[in-house]
Amino acid sequence: MGKLVELNSQGDTTTLWDPADDVSLHETDVKFKELMERGFSMVERTADEETFHRADHFDPRAEEIVAIFPMTGG
Length: 74
Description:
Blueprint: E1 2-8, E2 11-17, H1 22-37, E3 41-46, E4 53-54, E5 62-68
Parallel strand pairs: 1-5
Antiparallel strand pairs: 1-2, 3-4, 3-5
């Protein structure tokens, strides 16, 4: 089971996916693309990695993906 954690101004939202479930994979891929289009920075790690690295597409093998809310100034 993988998780996509969206960090935003209201806290965080988690989306879970099962690599064996096509519906959850599709829903998470759509969510990933929507967040990227909104300017979120995406980082991921797989089960065999200790650190996160930038992601530019949804990888169903990832254990965890974190979507970081874009910074705004003012």
